Amino acid sequence: MIFLWAFIIGGAICLFGQICFDVFKLDPAHTMVLLVVAGAVADGLGLYEPLIEFAGAGASVPITSFGNALVHGALTELNKDGWIGIITGIFKVTSAGISAAIIFSFLASLMIKPKG
Amino acid sequence: MANNKKKKLTPVQQEYQELAKKREPGRAVFKNSVRAFISGGAICFIGQIIQEMFVHWAGFTEKKAGDPTVAVLIIISVILTSLGVYDKIAQWAGAGTAVPVTGFANSMASAALEHRSEGFVLGVGGQMFKVAGPVIVFGTVAAFVVGILHWIFNPAAVGG
């Protein structure tokens, strides 16, 4: 069942992105920024975790979950260490994604010769 | 902004712009949306499969499996980008491949590959975040603001 919801919710978020492209004529950068901020606000209101529980990867794979993860790290550390935790915690959860993207993009540029 | 631009134009130019707007080929909104839904859903579906694999074979909890899943998707995306496959899929899928985290990785990898000829420091290092940068900057600022708001309005939950 979770597979079906992952497909539907994930598809719906991408559909929203496509509508931003086509109907509101936003460029990809603005659309991504909008989605990330939306994810951050949703987690601030406590709405994103239930969505992940419900839709699994459908909610954790789209870029909205990046905003959610940033807030999550900040709030977890805030609860643990007080206000300084907001600064120290922001990248705690997203470390895996950002590190992987940087490292493998760099390795790819080492190994692959661009065409043309 | 659009109105400001209009004011500076002569009536004839305005007329022309309206005509041009009418003749502009409409974007295939419905077709693009269906494609985005299917491809985006499919990527999340694959993500769910990877996540289940982490849960069943590597002993991760349902919650902890999310991070390695994202990392695996990013690796797959970088490989597909290097092979030139991802951009071909993206042409068909539109936002369906841009919105998932794979699109984030694709933007970084393709920028890294594209600017490699400018050198590793200025090219790869400097341009890698050309597209992904705004996402990180605004995500971080938004998270900071949300954190501050929680700190102010929800002091009961804050220890330390």
Task: Walk me through the structure.
The complex is a heterodimer of chains A (116) and B (160). Chain A has 116 residues and is mainly α. Helices cover 78% and strands 0% of the residues of chain A. Chain A is built from 7 helices and no strands. In chain A, helix 2 packs parallel to helix 5 (64-81). Chain A is globular. The mean pLDDT of chain B is 87. Chain B has helices spanning 2-7, 11-23, 29-57, 66-82, 85-93, 95-98, 101-114, 120-127, 132-153. By secondary structure, chain B is mainly α. The longest helix of chain B has 29 residues, at 29-57. Chain B is extended. Chains A and B meet through helix 1, helix 2, helix 4, helix 5 and helix 6 of A and helix 3, helix 4, helix 6, helix 7 and helix 9 of B.
Helix content of chain B: over 70%
- Return Rg of chain B in Å: 22 Å
Count of DSSP strands of chain A: 0
- Summed over residues and divided by their number, the pLDDT of chain B gives a mean of 87
Give the radius of gyration of chain A.
16 Å
User: Per DSSP, what share of the residues of chain A sits in E-state strands of 2 or more residues?
Assistant: under 5%
Number of helices of chain B: 9
Low-pLDDT regions of chain A: none
Query: What is the β-strand count of chain B?
Result: 0
Q: Mind summarizing the main beta sheet of chain A?
A: none
- Strand/helix succession of chain A: HHHHHHH
